Amino acid sequence: MKLSKSDITRHNDSLFKNHKKKYDFLKVEIENLDEITNQIAAYNVAVPSWALGAGGTRFGRFGFGGEPSNLFEKLSDIGIIHALTKSAGAISLHIPWDIPENPGEIKKHAEQLGILFDAMNSNTFQDQENQKYSYKYGSLCHVDKDVRQQAVQHNKEVIDYGKALGSKSLTVWLADGSNFPGQLNFRRALNNTLESLREIYAYLPDDWKMFIEYKPYEPNFYSMVIQDWGTSHFLASKLGKKAFTLVDLGHHLPNTNIEQIVATLMMDGMLGGFHFNDSKYGDDDLTVGAIKPYQLFLIFNELVYGMKNNPANNPVPAWMIDASHNVKDPLEDIIQSINAIETAYAKALLVDQEALQEAQMRNDVVHCQNILQNAFNTDVQPILAQARVLNNASINPIATFRDFDIRKKLIDERGVETTATGL
Ligand SMILES: [Mn+2]
């Protein structure tokens, strides 16, 4: 199943007139509209290989049919999303779920679809078949050196797979921690983790980055070894210049001010990666922007400010969608997430940073709030649609997906019973 450029532009014909009217209307209001549109048109976010099938809950999993059952098909699915949006030009792989049997062939397929290989993800939160030592009591933090070495070795292998595909970064997320007080010595666990990470870091190629993800709880419910951004930052600064903190929106306690964390990390040049999702209660992995679009906008406001005012040389963060799907078609869900991310980004680009700074210096709190909320309340959908027009993508990706009956075609091609590997 492959969508051609001409299929998409033909579908756009019926939508173009109405779109142009809306975009021209915005042009009257927004002076630098084309500049903002170009920034949105250049934006890409990586799709993780595990988000293309139905995600499970601990109670059940409900498939969609036509799910990709190997890496080649996963790339094809992202190819469909990328053709429709021209904003999904990267894939993030998870080893061992996506071990490339033939890296050359996989790389060629990705190239033809315009997809790059973003961060590689290791997995030491499950035991694999034929694995010598168990991660039941931790991996990089484990009390037994043999277990730690096995986990270090796995991360080195993940780097090797990434090298073969042209990836340039490794994301380490650890489920390590304890379920009961006294189970684990905090300092020993953190120190073991640091020493293990040092070995992985030493193996990292010079032009690679390492992202350290944190999470306050789950799967361990008393303590997580890397529980918050401070611990991640602590480890990354001890490792060296190639190590950074990764922020996952769902990995915070309720009501945490994530935009402030973003600002603080960027001030120190330490924000390396970003995982998008949304949540009502915990790490719910819901569609981006489904619950708290204003929070997402405030986060993007800090990102835009941080990239413009960047004395610590924070790199452009590695963007990735990290959501899970059980009741929506995963491809439609990812399209919705991309739309929410670009919506927040476009609104943040509308913020008049100079006026905001002036109002802040005058302590004009009312005006500060108005500047932010005027940007947030602007309908930026014509900007996103115009960005897609510029890229020969779809004016309305979900409508195109449905009009072309893509899910049905995938089911015809792959069958109803297929299951994507992953969570
Ligand atoms: Mn994540």
Summarize the structure.
Helices cover about 50% and strands about 10% of the residues. It is an alpha/beta fold.
Explained architecture:
By secondary structure, the protein is of the alpha/beta class. It is 48% helix and 10% strand. The protein has 15 helices and 10 strands. The protein has helices at residues 5-29, 33-41, 71-85, 103-113, 145-165, 186-203, 229-239, 258-267, 293-308, 330-350, 353-361, 365-376, 381-390, 397-403, 406-414, and strands at 46-48, 90-94, 116-121, 169-172, 177-178, 209-213, 223-224, 243-248, 271-276, 318-321. It has an 8-stranded parallel beta sheet. Helix 3 (71-85) links the parallel strand 1 and strand 2. Helix 9 (293-308) crosses helix 10. The chain is globular. The two termini are 24 Å apart. The mean pLDDT is 96. Bound molecules: manganese (II) ion. Manganese (II) ion is lined by residues 213, 248, 275, 322.
